[in-house]
């Protein structure tokens, strides 16, 4: 597969980089690498069109200076890009997310991720906050869904925290394949990975659902998640901004879910709801 790489130079970096990632995701960009000057963004050539950036509001903002260039890039170059830009991260003192080429450290949960074209290394605020939620919640003996699993990192940590049955679902084939690879790499035995969307959740029930996607998909699928939660179940959501929390909470409330707590980081939010 051939990808188009956009190289964005951004001044100042924040919050413009986060806003740009969100808007690029809405028009089909699939993967991102942040660097000291801005952002690399990738989209399948088959999904690309010359007018792809025309409706991005952030590029027209007088508050930021954003320039860009683009080129075709073969998928096999992606791993080299990650090796240059992907650094290990820690979440609290308990969890480390690293690539296979990073040295391990003495932490309780050592997660090895080969991200390839998938989202979910722990670097982005939303993934980092979801990992924190998992570390702070009791997963022992729980049934778990990781919806929009990307690399599978949330499901992997959930199993390490004691979850007994886990489903990880992503609509994109490379995320499905990448999650399967990462599940095996971390010696997880209780995670089943599926390719698809919320239509796969018919007649499914879970104690905990993790969904780190984007606002519009969450709003569409919250009723499905609600129907899939066992009594007393928990829904963790992320992938949206602080200003979107009210509409997300309203939708959850309409489905009988009560807001419990939130985490915030750089204008991104991760929220907990209980059934």
Q: What does this molecule look like?
A:
The protein is of the alpha/beta class. It has 2 domains: 81 residues, Alpha-Beta Plaits (2-Layer Sandwich), CATH 3.30.70; 157 residues, Rossmann fold (3-Layer(aba) Sandwich). Helix content is 28%, strand content 34%.
Topology:
Elements: E1 2-11, H1 16-26, E2 31-34, E3 38-44, E4 65-74, H2 78-85, E5 89-91, E6 95-98, E7 109-112, H3 125-136, E8 143-147, H4 153-160, E9 165-170, H5 173-185, E10 191-195, E11 206-212, H6 215-228, E12 229-241, H7 245-254, E13 258-265, E14 268-274
Parallel strand pairs: 6-7, 8-9, 8-11, 9-10, 11-12
Antiparallel strand pairs: 1-3, 1-4, 2-3, 5-6, 12-14, 13-14
Helix pairs in contact: 3-4, 6-7
Q: Give me the secondary-structure category.
A: alpha/beta
Placed side by side, the strands forming the largest sheet appear as 10-9-8-11-12-14-13
**Whole-Å distance between the termini?**
42 Å
Oligomer: single chain
| Count of DSSP strands | 14
Q: Approximately how much beta-strand content do the residues carry? A: 25-35%
Which descriptor suits the 3D outline?
A: globular
* CATH architecture descriptor name of the largest domain: 3-Layer(aba) Sandwich
- CATH domain class name of the largest domain: Alpha Beta
- Please estimate the helix content: 25-40%
Order of helices and strands: EHEEEHEEEHEHEHEEHEHEE
The CATH H-level superfamily of the largest domain is Vaccinia Virus protein VP39
């Amino acid at each position: 597969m051939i990808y188009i790489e956009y190289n964005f130079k951004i001044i100042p970096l924040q919050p413009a980089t986060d806003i740009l990632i969100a808007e690029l995701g809405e028009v089909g960009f699939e993967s991102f690498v942040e660097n000291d000057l801005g952002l690399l963004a990738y989209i399948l050539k088959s999904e690309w069109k010359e007018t792809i950036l025309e409706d991005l509001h952030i590029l027209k903002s007088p508050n930021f200076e954003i320039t860009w260039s683009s080129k075709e890039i073969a998928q096999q170059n992606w791993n080299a890009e990650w090796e240059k830009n992907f650094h290990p991260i820690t979440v609290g003192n308990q969890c480390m997310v690293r690539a296979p080429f990073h040295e391990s450290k003495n932490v309780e949960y050592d997660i090895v991720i080969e991200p390839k074209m998938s989202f979910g290394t722990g670097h982005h605020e939303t993934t980092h906050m979801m990992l924190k939620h998992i570390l702070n919640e009791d997963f022992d003996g729980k049934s778990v869904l990781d919806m929009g699993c990307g690399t599978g990192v949330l499901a992997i940590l959930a199993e390490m925290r004691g979850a007994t049955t886990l489903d990880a679902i992503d609509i994109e084939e490379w995320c499905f394949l990448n999650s399967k690879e990462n599940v095996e790499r971390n010696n997880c035995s209780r995670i089943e990975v599926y390719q698809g969307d919320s239509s796969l959740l018919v007649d499914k029930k879970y104690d905990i659902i993790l969904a780190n996607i984007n606002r519009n998909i969450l709003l569409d699928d919250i009723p499905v998640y609600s129907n899939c939660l066992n009594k007393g179940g928990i829904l963790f959501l992320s992938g949206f901004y602080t200003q979107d929390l009210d509409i997300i909470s309203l939708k959850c409330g309409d489905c009988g879910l009560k807001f419990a707590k939130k985490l915030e980081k750089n204008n991104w939010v991760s929220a907990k709801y209980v059934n």
